[in-house]
Amino acid sequence: MADSFSLQNVLDSFKSCLSDNKEVFIKYYISGWRELVSFMNSLGSVFSFISKDAVNKIQILENFLVGENGTHYLTVQSMVKYELDNELVDLTKRGIHPESGCRTLLRLHRALRWLQLFLESLRTSNEDSKTSVMCSEAYNASLAQHHPWIIRKAAGVAFCALPYRNTFFEVMNAGSHQEVITLLGEALPMISEVYQITEDLYAKNNLLDLP
Ligand code: 1Q0
């Protein structure tokens, strides 16, 4: 179970992300990303430069969570407060805190917007839709704005290696195509809510452009 991907696991992680008072648990946020990375790894080695970066960022957050100040890293809200109160974030240019929790999570947060757009487009796609086109449109409307030319180029090459929609739906391991579409419909509001709460928190604290 643990090492076989299923869309249901992703949904479960993002469902568990929100506390009763709508704080975002870092533990489940990163377990959602781990699931997604395992999915991406099953698609082939052209994606390994992406999954390496994602794993690296997941690991930075995990280390904070299990580290001596771990209690401050329980939720995204408590992390932001703790790191800002203690001046642990490089706010305008990279300095002595190049790997703060805040800037690391921001990278995944931006990627979550891509995921949201991509999954929505998969959900509403038809048999003739091309995954590579859906993926790059989602990317251009989100993450690409934060990436230099060379990364955008490499991402574009990787997208061309995405399997066809049919295969893609099968790797998601969530039953028939109709079942996948239903599950996507359940997963998306969860993902969107986690995204929006984080976005609002970062905006309120002026953290959306952390270097
Ligand atoms: C399946 C297709 C995957 C497509 C992923 C799209 C994202 C492309 C991103 C390219 C990133 C390239 C690597 C390096 C980037 C870093 O420079 C950048 C900034 O960090 P920093 O430290 O230099 O300031 N990093 C990022 O922007 C973070 C990127 C994280 C990407 C995480 C992607 C995880 C992918 C998951 C696969 C999802 C499959 C979707 C379908 C699943 C169905 C449930």
UniProtKB/TrEMBL annotation:
Species whose genome carries this gene: Hemibagrus wyckioides
Record-annotated Glycolipid transfer protein domain positions: 26-173
Catalysed reactions listed for this entry: N-(9Z-octadecenoyl)-sphing-4-enine-1-phosphate(in) = N-(9Z-octadecenoyl)-sphing-4-enine-1-phosphate(out); N-(hexadecanoyl)-sphing-4-enine-1-phosphate(in) = N-(hexadecanoyl)-sphing-4-enine-1-phosphate(out)
UniProt name for this protein: Ceramide-1-phosphate transfer protein
Any one Gene Ontology molecular-function term assigned to this protein's record: ceramide 1-phosphate transfer activity
Source superkingdom: Eukaryota
Keyword Cell membrane: yes
Membrane topology: Peripheral membrane protein
Assigned keywords, A-Z: Cell membrane, Cytoplasm, Endosome, Golgi apparatus, Lipid transport, Lipid-binding, Membrane, Nucleus, Transport
One GO CC term on file: endosome membrane
Family, per entry: Belongs to the GLTP family.
GO biological process per UniProt: negative regulation of interleukin-1 beta production
InterPro entries in the record: GLTP_sf (IPR036497), Glycolipid_transfer_prot_dom (IPR014830)
Localization per Swiss-Prot or TrEMBL: Cell membrane; Cytoplasm, Cytosol; Endosome membrane; Golgi apparatus, trans-Golgi network membrane
